Amino acid sequence: MEDMTTEISAADRLEDALSGRIDHSAVDAIADLSHQVSLQELTRLVHTSTPLQSAVLFRILDKDVAVAVFENLPPGYQAELLQNLREPEVADIVEGLDPDDRAELFGELPAGVVTQLMKGLDADERKMTTAVLGYPKSAIGRYMSPEVLSLHEDWTAAEAMEVVRARIDGPETVYLLPVVGPGRVLLGVVSLRNLIAADPDTPLSEMVRESITAHALTDREAASRDFLSHRLIAMPVVDQEERLVGILTMDDVLDIVDEEDAEDIARSSGSEPLDRSYLSSSIIRLVRSRIVWLLVLAVSAILTVQVLEVYEERLDQVVILALFIPLLTGTGGNTGNQAATTVTRALAVGEVRIRDLGRVIWRELRVGFLLGAVLGVLGFIVAGLVYGPAIGLVIGLTLLSVCIMAATVGGLMPIIAKRVGADPAVFSNPFISTFCDATGLILYFSIATAVLGLR
After folding, report:
1. Which CATH number fits the domain 283-452, given the four candidates 3.40.50.720, 2.30.110.10, 1.10.357.20, 1.10.10.60?
2. What are the two backbone dihedrals, phi and then psi, of residue 151, each rounded to the nearest 5 degrees?
3. What's the pLDDT tens digit per position in 224-267?
4. Cα 299 to Cα 291: distance, rounded to the nearest angstrom
5. CA-to-CA distance for 340 and 69, rounded, in angstroms?
6. Which keywords does UniProt give here (predicted)?
7. Residue by residue, what is the 3-state secondary structure of 153-208?
8. Rounded CA gap, 294 and 110, in Å?
Protein backbone atom coordinates (compact mmCIF):
# COMPACT_ATOMS: atom_id res chain seq x y z
CA MET A 1 0.00 0.00 0.00
CA GLU A 2 2.83 2.37 0.88
CA ASP A 3 4.63 1.69 -2.43
CA MET A 4 1.43 2.36 -4.38
CA THR A 5 0.88 5.65 -2.52
CA THR A 6 4.47 6.70 -3.23
CA GLU A 7 4.11 5.90 -6.93
CA ILE A 8 0.82 7.76 -7.25
CA SER A 9 2.35 10.73 -5.45
CA ALA A 10 5.39 10.71 -7.74
CA ALA A 11 3.15 10.53 -10.83
CA ASP A 12 1.07 13.47 -9.59
CA ARG A 13 4.18 15.51 -8.84
CA LEU A 14 5.62 14.70 -12.25
CA GLU A 15 2.38 15.81 -13.90
CA ASP A 16 2.45 19.07 -11.89
CA ALA A 17 6.10 19.67 -12.86
CA LEU A 18 5.26 19.21 -16.55
CA SER A 19 2.32 21.61 -16.25
CA GLY A 20 4.40 24.40 -14.72
CA ARG A 21 7.16 26.56 -16.14
CA ILE A 22 9.86 24.36 -17.63
CA ASP A 23 13.36 25.70 -16.92
CA HIS A 24 16.66 24.06 -15.90
CA SER A 25 15.51 23.37 -12.34
CA ALA A 26 12.20 21.98 -13.58
CA VAL A 27 14.01 19.67 -16.01
CA ASP A 28 16.13 18.28 -13.15
CA ALA A 29 13.00 17.69 -11.07
CA ILE A 30 11.24 16.00 -13.99
CA ALA A 31 14.24 13.74 -14.59
CA ASP A 32 14.35 12.72 -10.92
CA LEU A 33 10.61 12.05 -10.73
CA SER A 34 10.60 10.07 -13.98
CA HIS A 35 12.76 7.41 -12.32
CA GLN A 36 10.13 6.98 -9.59
CA VAL A 37 7.17 6.46 -11.92
CA SER A 38 6.08 3.20 -13.54
CA LEU A 39 6.23 2.61 -17.29
CA GLN A 40 2.43 2.64 -17.44
CA GLU A 41 2.22 6.06 -15.78
CA LEU A 42 4.98 7.45 -18.00
CA THR A 43 3.08 6.28 -21.07
CA ARG A 44 -0.10 7.91 -19.80
CA LEU A 45 1.66 11.21 -19.12
CA VAL A 46 3.34 11.28 -22.54
CA HIS A 47 0.01 10.46 -24.19
CA THR A 48 -2.17 12.96 -22.31
CA SER A 49 0.18 15.95 -21.99
CA THR A 50 0.54 18.77 -24.51
CA PRO A 51 2.98 18.20 -27.41
CA LEU A 52 5.63 20.40 -25.75
CA GLN A 53 5.29 18.69 -22.37
CA SER A 54 5.36 15.24 -23.98
CA ALA A 55 8.52 16.08 -25.93
CA VAL A 56 10.27 17.41 -22.80
CA LEU A 57 9.41 14.31 -20.76
CA PHE A 58 10.30 11.97 -23.61
CA ARG A 59 13.74 13.53 -24.11
CA ILE A 60 14.55 13.05 -20.42
CA LEU A 61 13.77 9.33 -20.37
CA ASP A 62 16.51 6.73 -20.73
CA LYS A 63 16.70 5.26 -24.22
CA ASP A 64 15.29 1.84 -23.29
CA VAL A 65 12.46 3.38 -21.30
CA ALA A 66 11.72 5.85 -24.09
CA VAL A 67 11.45 3.05 -26.67
CA ALA A 68 9.16 1.04 -24.36
CA VAL A 69 6.92 4.09 -23.81
CA PHE A 70 6.91 4.87 -27.52
CA GLU A 71 5.81 1.33 -28.42
CA ASN A 72 2.75 1.70 -26.17
CA LEU A 73 1.53 4.89 -27.87
CA PRO A 74 -1.04 4.92 -30.72
CA PRO A 75 0.61 5.24 -34.17
CA GLY A 76 -1.04 8.60 -34.86
CA TYR A 77 0.39 10.08 -31.69
CA GLN A 78 3.76 8.44 -32.32
CA ALA A 79 4.01 10.31 -35.61
CA GLU A 80 3.05 13.59 -33.94
CA LEU A 81 5.59 13.08 -31.16
CA LEU A 82 8.42 12.43 -33.61
CA GLN A 83 7.91 15.88 -35.14
CA ASN A 84 8.81 17.45 -31.79
CA LEU A 85 12.02 15.46 -31.29
CA ARG A 86 15.52 16.01 -32.63
CA GLU A 87 16.66 13.88 -35.56
CA PRO A 88 19.19 11.70 -33.63
CA GLU A 89 16.52 10.86 -31.05
CA VAL A 90 14.09 9.91 -33.80
CA ALA A 91 16.61 7.58 -35.43
CA ASP A 92 17.30 5.79 -32.14
CA ILE A 93 13.60 5.31 -31.43
CA VAL A 94 12.73 4.04 -34.91
CA GLU A 95 15.66 1.63 -34.87
CA GLY A 96 14.47 0.18 -31.55
CA LEU A 97 10.99 -0.71 -32.86
CA ASP A 98 9.94 -4.10 -34.19
CA PRO A 99 9.40 -4.14 -37.98
CA ASP A 100 5.60 -4.41 -37.68
CA ASP A 101 5.42 -1.52 -35.19
CA ARG A 102 7.78 0.49 -37.38
CA ALA A 103 5.62 -0.14 -40.46
CA GLU A 104 2.49 0.98 -38.58
CA LEU A 105 4.28 4.19 -37.57
CA PHE A 106 5.50 4.82 -41.12
CA GLY A 107 1.89 4.57 -42.30
CA GLU A 108 1.16 7.76 -40.32
CA LEU A 109 4.19 9.74 -41.56
CA PRO A 110 4.73 11.71 -44.80
CA ALA A 111 6.51 9.78 -47.55
CA GLY A 112 9.56 12.04 -47.42
CA VAL A 113 10.05 11.44 -43.69
CA VAL A 114 9.66 7.70 -44.16
CA THR A 115 12.30 7.67 -46.89
CA GLN A 116 14.73 9.52 -44.65
CA LEU A 117 14.12 7.20 -41.70
CA MET A 118 14.48 4.10 -43.85
CA LYS A 119 17.95 5.22 -44.87
CA GLY A 120 19.01 5.10 -41.23
CA LEU A 121 18.11 1.42 -40.82
CA ASP A 122 20.51 -1.45 -41.45
CA ALA A 123 19.89 -3.68 -44.46
CA ASP A 124 18.05 -6.46 -42.60
CA GLU A 125 15.74 -4.09 -40.72
CA ARG A 126 15.04 -2.16 -43.92
CA LYS A 127 14.19 -5.37 -45.78
CA MET A 128 11.77 -6.58 -43.11
CA THR A 129 10.12 -3.18 -42.77
CA THR A 130 9.70 -2.88 -46.54
CA ALA A 131 8.11 -6.34 -46.66
CA VAL A 132 5.49 -5.36 -44.07
CA LEU A 133 4.85 -1.98 -45.73
CA GLY A 134 4.05 -3.82 -48.96
CA TYR A 135 0.70 -4.95 -47.58
CA PRO A 136 -2.43 -2.73 -47.46
CA LYS A 137 -3.21 -1.04 -44.13
CA SER A 138 -6.35 -3.15 -43.80
CA ALA A 139 -4.49 -6.46 -44.28
CA ILE A 140 -3.18 -8.50 -41.38
CA GLY A 141 0.20 -8.75 -43.12
CA ARG A 142 0.77 -5.10 -42.21
CA TYR A 143 0.68 -6.03 -38.52
CA MET A 144 2.55 -9.33 -38.46
CA SER A 145 6.15 -9.66 -37.35
CA PRO A 146 8.44 -10.85 -40.16
CA GLU A 147 11.02 -11.78 -37.50
CA VAL A 148 9.86 -15.35 -37.07
CA LEU A 149 11.92 -18.31 -35.85
CA SER A 150 11.03 -21.22 -38.10
CA LEU A 151 12.21 -24.83 -37.86
CA HIS A 152 12.79 -27.37 -40.64
CA GLU A 153 10.86 -30.61 -40.73
CA ASP A 154 13.98 -32.76 -41.09
CA TRP A 155 15.56 -31.49 -37.86
CA THR A 156 15.51 -33.41 -34.61
CA ALA A 157 14.28 -31.92 -31.34
CA ALA A 158 17.88 -31.45 -30.19
CA GLU A 159 18.88 -29.63 -33.38
CA ALA A 160 15.80 -27.44 -33.14
CA MET A 161 16.61 -26.53 -29.52
CA GLU A 162 20.12 -25.47 -30.53
CA VAL A 163 18.67 -23.09 -33.11
CA VAL A 164 16.16 -21.72 -30.59
CA ARG A 165 18.91 -21.03 -28.04
CA ALA A 166 21.10 -19.34 -30.65
CA ARG A 167 18.35 -17.07 -32.00
CA ILE A 168 16.13 -16.56 -28.98
CA ASP A 169 16.73 -12.80 -28.78
CA GLY A 170 15.67 -12.04 -32.35
CA PRO A 171 12.06 -13.16 -32.88
CA GLU A 172 9.07 -11.51 -31.25
CA THR A 173 7.93 -14.86 -29.83
CA VAL A 174 9.34 -18.38 -29.48
CA TYR A 175 6.43 -19.99 -27.62
CA LEU A 176 4.93 -21.23 -30.89
CA LEU A 177 7.43 -22.33 -33.53
CA PRO A 178 6.38 -22.79 -37.18
CA VAL A 179 7.75 -25.83 -38.99
CA VAL A 180 8.47 -25.41 -42.69
CA GLY A 181 9.38 -27.65 -45.60
CA PRO A 182 11.10 -26.89 -48.91
CA GLY A 183 10.46 -23.35 -50.14
CA ARG A 184 9.39 -22.26 -46.61
CA VAL A 185 5.97 -23.87 -47.10
CA LEU A 186 4.29 -24.06 -43.71
CA LEU A 187 3.67 -27.60 -42.51
CA GLY A 188 2.44 -26.85 -38.99
CA VAL A 189 3.70 -25.73 -35.61
CA VAL A 190 5.48 -27.05 -32.53
CA SER A 191 5.11 -25.50 -29.10
CA LEU A 192 8.26 -24.67 -27.17
CA ARG A 193 6.93 -26.70 -24.25
CA ASN A 194 6.61 -29.86 -26.35
CA LEU A 195 10.00 -29.24 -27.91
CA ILE A 196 11.68 -29.05 -24.51
CA ALA A 197 9.89 -32.17 -23.25
CA ALA A 198 10.60 -34.26 -26.37
CA ASP A 199 13.29 -36.89 -26.69
CA PRO A 200 16.33 -35.18 -28.32
CA ASP A 201 16.35 -37.64 -31.23
CA THR A 202 12.68 -37.20 -32.10
CA PRO A 203 12.23 -35.77 -35.63
CA LEU A 204 10.15 -32.62 -35.87
CA SER A 205 8.08 -34.33 -38.58
CA GLU A 206 6.65 -36.57 -35.82
CA MET A 207 5.94 -33.63 -33.48
CA VAL A 208 4.43 -31.11 -35.86
CA ARG A 209 0.69 -30.42 -35.53
CA GLU A 210 -1.70 -28.60 -37.80
CA SER A 211 -1.86 -24.85 -37.29
CA ILE A 212 -4.56 -22.23 -37.63
CA THR A 213 -3.13 -19.66 -40.02
CA ALA A 214 -4.01 -16.33 -41.58
CA HIS A 215 -3.30 -15.25 -45.15
CA ALA A 216 -1.32 -12.02 -45.27
CA LEU A 217 -4.05 -10.23 -47.27
CA THR A 218 -6.87 -11.22 -44.89
CA ASP A 219 -8.70 -8.29 -43.30
CA ARG A 220 -6.98 -7.39 -40.06
CA GLU A 221 -10.14 -7.41 -37.92
CA ALA A 222 -11.33 -10.75 -39.29
CA ALA A 223 -7.93 -12.34 -38.63
CA SER A 224 -7.75 -10.85 -35.13
CA ARG A 225 -11.23 -12.05 -34.20
CA ASP A 226 -10.31 -15.53 -35.48
CA PHE A 227 -7.13 -15.40 -33.39
CA LEU A 228 -9.07 -14.57 -30.22
CA SER A 229 -11.88 -17.04 -30.87
CA HIS A 230 -9.33 -19.89 -30.96
CA ARG A 231 -7.51 -18.53 -27.86
CA LEU A 232 -4.12 -18.57 -29.58
CA ILE A 233 -0.83 -17.19 -28.31
CA ALA A 234 0.54 -16.74 -31.82
CA MET A 235 -0.58 -17.41 -35.39
CA PRO A 236 1.60 -18.05 -38.45
CA VAL A 237 0.91 -15.79 -41.45
CA VAL A 238 1.29 -17.23 -44.95
CA ASP A 239 1.10 -15.96 -48.52
CA GLN A 240 -1.04 -17.28 -51.36
CA GLU A 241 1.35 -20.20 -51.88
CA GLU A 242 1.16 -21.16 -48.17
CA ARG A 243 4.73 -19.98 -47.58
CA LEU A 244 5.53 -18.63 -44.14
CA VAL A 245 5.96 -14.84 -44.22
CA GLY A 246 5.50 -13.84 -40.57
CA ILE A 247 3.79 -14.43 -37.27
CA LEU A 248 0.96 -12.64 -35.49
CA THR A 249 1.20 -12.21 -31.72
CA MET A 250 -1.28 -11.42 -28.98
CA ASP A 251 -0.13 -7.84 -28.40
CA ASP A 252 -0.71 -6.93 -32.07
CA VAL A 253 -4.13 -8.60 -32.04
CA LEU A 254 -5.23 -6.74 -28.90
CA ASP A 255 -4.12 -3.43 -30.42
CA ILE A 256 -6.15 -4.10 -33.57
CA VAL A 257 -9.27 -5.17 -31.68
CA ASP A 258 -9.04 -2.19 -29.30
CA GLU A 259 -8.74 0.18 -32.25
CA GLU A 260 -11.64 -1.43 -34.14
CA ASP A 261 -13.86 -1.44 -31.04
CA ALA A 262 -13.06 2.20 -30.30
CA GLU A 263 -13.94 3.09 -33.89
CA ASP A 264 -17.23 1.18 -33.73
CA ILE A 265 -18.21 2.77 -30.42
CA ALA A 266 -17.40 6.26 -31.69
CA ARG A 267 -19.24 5.87 -34.99
CA SER A 268 -22.28 4.24 -33.42
CA SER A 269 -22.48 7.35 -31.21
CA GLY A 270 -22.24 9.72 -34.16
CA SER A 271 -18.58 10.78 -34.04
CA GLU A 272 -15.17 9.84 -35.38
CA PRO A 273 -12.54 8.12 -33.17
CA LEU A 274 -9.69 10.26 -31.82
CA ASP A 275 -6.13 9.26 -32.70
CA ARG A 276 -4.83 10.52 -29.36
CA SER A 277 -6.13 10.87 -25.80
CA TYR A 278 -9.13 13.07 -25.03
CA LEU A 279 -7.26 15.46 -22.71
CA SER A 280 -4.39 16.03 -25.16
CA SER A 281 -6.71 16.55 -28.15
CA SER A 282 -7.28 20.16 -29.17
CA ILE A 283 -10.75 21.67 -29.12
CA ILE A 284 -10.68 21.94 -32.92
CA ARG A 285 -9.82 18.24 -33.19
CA LEU A 286 -12.76 17.34 -30.95
CA VAL A 287 -15.10 19.54 -32.98
CA ARG A 288 -13.93 17.99 -36.26
CA SER A 289 -14.58 14.49 -34.89
CA ARG A 290 -18.23 15.36 -34.20
CA ILE A 291 -19.42 18.10 -36.53
CA VAL A 292 -19.77 16.02 -39.72
CA TRP A 293 -22.09 13.52 -38.08
CA LEU A 294 -24.14 16.26 -36.45
CA LEU A 295 -24.62 17.94 -39.82
CA VAL A 296 -25.64 14.64 -41.42
CA LEU A 297 -28.12 13.90 -38.63
CA ALA A 298 -29.49 17.44 -38.70
CA VAL A 299 -30.19 17.16 -42.41
CA SER A 300 -31.75 13.70 -42.04
CA ALA A 301 -33.91 14.92 -39.13
CA ILE A 302 -35.64 17.28 -41.57
CA LEU A 303 -37.48 14.18 -42.77
CA THR A 304 -39.13 13.88 -39.35
CA VAL A 305 -40.23 17.51 -39.50
CA GLN A 306 -41.74 16.95 -42.94
CA VAL A 307 -43.71 13.96 -41.66
CA LEU A 308 -45.17 16.08 -38.85
CA GLU A 309 -46.06 18.77 -41.36
CA VAL A 310 -47.99 16.25 -43.48
CA TYR A 311 -50.07 15.17 -40.48
CA GLU A 312 -50.47 18.65 -38.98
CA GLU A 313 -54.23 18.81 -39.64
CA ARG A 314 -54.82 15.50 -37.85
CA LEU A 315 -52.83 16.71 -34.88
CA ASP A 316 -55.13 19.72 -34.74
CA GLN A 317 -58.15 17.39 -34.57
CA VAL A 318 -56.76 15.31 -31.67
CA VAL A 319 -54.15 17.41 -29.91
CA ILE A 320 -53.57 14.71 -27.31
CA LEU A 321 -51.72 12.66 -29.95
CA ALA A 322 -48.79 15.10 -29.80
CA LEU A 323 -48.09 14.12 -26.17
CA PHE A 324 -47.11 10.59 -27.16
CA ILE A 325 -44.72 11.47 -30.00
CA PRO A 326 -41.56 11.51 -27.79
CA LEU A 327 -42.54 8.14 -26.27
CA LEU A 328 -43.05 6.48 -29.65
CA THR A 329 -40.01 7.90 -31.41
CA GLY A 330 -37.81 7.13 -28.39
CA THR A 331 -39.07 3.55 -28.23
CA GLY A 332 -38.45 3.02 -31.93
CA GLY A 333 -34.96 4.48 -31.83
CA ASN A 334 -33.97 2.49 -28.75
CA THR A 335 -35.36 -0.77 -30.12
CA GLY A 336 -33.55 -0.28 -33.44
CA ASN A 337 -30.29 0.60 -31.73
CA GLN A 338 -30.48 -2.46 -29.50
CA ALA A 339 -30.92 -4.74 -32.50
CA ALA A 340 -28.24 -2.98 -34.55
CA THR A 341 -25.70 -3.09 -31.71
CA THR A 342 -26.34 -6.80 -31.15
CA VAL A 343 -26.03 -7.70 -34.85
CA THR A 344 -22.99 -5.45 -35.38
CA ARG A 345 -21.21 -7.19 -32.52
CA ALA A 346 -22.22 -10.60 -33.87
CA LEU A 347 -20.82 -9.64 -37.29
CA ALA A 348 -17.56 -8.49 -35.72
CA VAL A 349 -16.92 -11.73 -33.85
CA GLY A 350 -18.03 -13.95 -36.73
CA GLU A 351 -21.27 -15.23 -35.18
CA VAL A 352 -23.31 -13.79 -38.05
CA ARG A 353 -22.40 -13.73 -41.73
CA ILE A 354 -23.94 -11.94 -44.70
CA ARG A 355 -25.68 -15.12 -45.84
CA ASP A 356 -27.53 -15.21 -42.49
CA LEU A 357 -29.61 -12.17 -43.47
CA GLY A 358 -32.87 -14.13 -43.67
CA ARG A 359 -32.35 -15.78 -40.30
CA VAL A 360 -31.53 -12.45 -38.67
CA ILE A 361 -34.67 -10.81 -40.09
CA TRP A 362 -36.85 -13.68 -38.90
CA ARG A 363 -35.34 -13.58 -35.41
CA GLU A 364 -35.69 -9.81 -35.08
CA LEU A 365 -39.27 -9.92 -36.33
CA ARG A 366 -40.14 -12.27 -33.47
CA VAL A 367 -38.10 -10.31 -30.93
CA GLY A 368 -39.73 -7.07 -32.05
CA PHE A 369 -43.18 -8.65 -31.85
CA LEU A 370 -42.67 -9.86 -28.27
CA LEU A 371 -41.16 -6.55 -27.16
CA GLY A 372 -43.95 -4.64 -28.86
CA ALA A 373 -46.61 -6.90 -27.34
CA VAL A 374 -45.35 -6.25 -23.81
CA LEU A 375 -44.99 -2.50 -24.32
CA GLY A 376 -48.21 -2.30 -26.34
CA VAL A 377 -50.31 -3.93 -23.61
CA LEU A 378 -48.77 -1.65 -21.01
CA GLY A 379 -49.33 1.41 -23.23
CA PHE A 380 -52.94 0.41 -23.91
CA ILE A 381 -53.72 0.04 -20.21
CA VAL A 382 -52.04 3.26 -19.06
CA ALA A 383 -53.16 5.49 -21.96
CA GLY A 384 -56.63 3.91 -21.97
CA LEU A 385 -57.19 4.61 -18.27
CA VAL A 386 -56.10 8.24 -18.60
CA TYR A 387 -57.30 9.26 -22.10
CA GLY A 388 -59.88 6.66 -23.02
CA PRO A 389 -59.92 3.24 -24.76
CA ALA A 390 -59.56 4.64 -28.29
CA ILE A 391 -56.35 6.52 -27.52
CA GLY A 392 -55.11 3.52 -25.57
CA LEU A 393 -55.69 1.28 -28.58
CA VAL A 394 -53.81 3.71 -30.85
CA ILE A 395 -50.82 3.79 -28.50
CA GLY A 396 -50.82 0.02 -27.98
CA LEU A 397 -50.98 -0.82 -31.67
CA THR A 398 -48.36 1.81 -32.53
CA LEU A 399 -45.91 0.48 -29.93
CA LEU A 400 -46.39 -3.03 -31.32
CA SER A 401 -45.84 -1.86 -34.92
CA VAL A 402 -42.90 0.40 -34.10
CA CYS A 403 -41.05 -2.32 -32.18
CA ILE A 404 -41.47 -4.84 -35.00
CA MET A 405 -40.32 -2.31 -37.60
CA ALA A 406 -37.39 -0.96 -35.57
CA ALA A 407 -36.03 -4.36 -34.52
CA THR A 408 -36.19 -5.64 -38.10
CA VAL A 409 -34.50 -2.57 -39.56
CA GLY A 410 -31.93 -2.52 -36.77
CA GLY A 411 -30.94 -6.12 -37.52
CA LEU A 412 -31.02 -5.60 -41.27
CA MET A 413 -28.94 -2.45 -41.71
CA PRO A 414 -25.56 -3.68 -40.32
CA ILE A 415 -25.66 -6.71 -42.63
CA ILE A 416 -26.47 -4.53 -45.63
CA ALA A 417 -23.60 -2.25 -44.65
CA LYS A 418 -21.26 -5.24 -44.48
CA ARG A 419 -22.46 -6.43 -47.87
CA VAL A 420 -21.72 -3.11 -49.61
CA GLY A 421 -18.35 -2.75 -47.87
CA ALA A 422 -19.35 -0.03 -45.41
CA ASP A 423 -18.72 0.03 -41.67
CA PRO A 424 -21.73 -1.60 -39.92
CA ALA A 425 -21.28 0.73 -36.94
CA VAL A 426 -22.03 3.71 -39.18
CA PHE A 427 -25.48 2.28 -39.87
CA SER A 428 -26.25 1.73 -36.22
CA ASN A 429 -27.46 4.39 -33.81
CA PRO A 430 -27.46 7.69 -35.77
CA PHE A 431 -29.12 6.62 -39.01
CA ILE A 432 -31.41 4.03 -37.47
CA SER A 433 -32.72 6.53 -34.92
CA THR A 434 -33.58 9.02 -37.64
CA PHE A 435 -35.17 6.35 -39.86
CA CYS A 436 -37.25 4.94 -37.01
CA ASP A 437 -38.39 8.41 -35.95
CA ALA A 438 -39.82 9.22 -39.38
CA THR A 439 -41.23 5.75 -40.05
CA GLY A 440 -42.65 5.49 -36.53
CA LEU A 441 -44.55 8.75 -36.98
CA ILE A 442 -46.04 7.51 -40.25
CA LEU A 443 -47.21 4.32 -38.52
CA TYR A 444 -48.54 6.34 -35.58
CA PHE A 445 -50.68 8.70 -37.61
CA SER A 446 -51.82 5.95 -39.97
CA ILE A 447 -53.08 3.88 -37.02
CA ALA A 448 -54.62 6.96 -35.38
CA THR A 449 -56.43 7.81 -38.63
CA ALA A 450 -57.88 4.32 -38.90
CA VAL A 451 -58.87 3.91 -35.24
CA LEU A 452 -60.12 7.44 -34.55
CA GLY A 453 -61.67 8.00 -37.97
CA LEU A 454 -59.56 11.12 -38.70
CA ARG A 455 -59.51 12.84 -42.09
Report:
1. 1.10.357.20
2. -120, 155
3. 988 988 889 999 999 999 999 999 999 889 988 888 877 777 77
4. 12
5. 37
6. CBS domain, Cell membrane, Magnesium, Membrane, Metal-binding, Transmembrane, Transmembrane helix, Transport
7. CCCEHHHHHHHHHHHCCCCCCCCEEEEECHHHEEEEEEEHHHHHHCCCCCEHHHHC
8. 30
